Structures
1.
Amino acid sequence: MQEFLEFIARRLVQNPDDVTVLREDKDEKIVFRLQVAEQDIGKVIGRNGRTAQALRILLAAVAAREGKRAILEIAD
């Protein structure tokens, strides 16, 4: 899941080398913290949060295949 999220995020931003995905396991869920360059935050969030919502939906689908629950946080 982490590699999947990194792959998509790197394709969205202008500075793919600045993309970092941190994973934290909590109880029955996995929290992914996505960090990008400051000028790329808008591209990851998208207009009205649509890109971020799409990322969350894709991540939830991948996690569901593994029987887990995933949460995406976009860090400043």
2.
Amino acid sequence: MYIILVYDIEAKRLAKALKLCRQYLIWIQNSTFEGELSPLQFKELQAKLKKVINPKKDSIIIFYHKTGFKPTKQTIGITKNEEQTFL
């Protein structure tokens, strides 16, 4: 499935969340990631993120769609990450 993940996490937990998300997805901009995951990888990522965040102070939003979804991507301004892999 195709994933777009964005988060707003307090600084003291941010490094752990960033490292975890980079293990599964491509970092595309501050607090924003994208990529293709299997259903199992998606469940693993969700479970691990729940252990990292404080649900009363942090927020994670995940947009997802079944495999085969081909979104169009346009960047206006600077590119935060030179990796241009877009699934």
3.
Amino acid sequence: MIGFFIALISGALMSVQGVFNTQVTKASGIWAASAFVQLTALFVCLGAWLVTDRSSLIGVFSVQPKYMLLGGAIGAFITYTVIRSMDLLGPAKAVMLIVVAQLLVAYIIELLGWFGVEKQPWEWRKLIGMLIAIVGIVIFKWK
């Protein structure tokens, strides 16, 4: 149950962060705003590490395969695409499309067992759930 609430908090924070970052972009520029976001995230993470964890920072480099270290670089492009989509579509439409894209890609990753994730069987109900989410987007956009 705690995972459910953490996921809800994550979604809420992503939406608020996207709005904040879009406003910062208007005052500076998209890459300056993205760099600031990543820099402040670094400081928060280092502070949290100092207070709570203190595991080896060098240990991250022992991960295999090495391409798993690209998460931060992907994060920079996530920040960019969230800012642009919110600016162009507005927060609600952008977040709906982002969530459906996340769901679709996550399900494909599970189905194919990519990136070390345990392979899951195909389930029609999951496809139906995604289709319902897409229909929800169409209804939400409908004027």
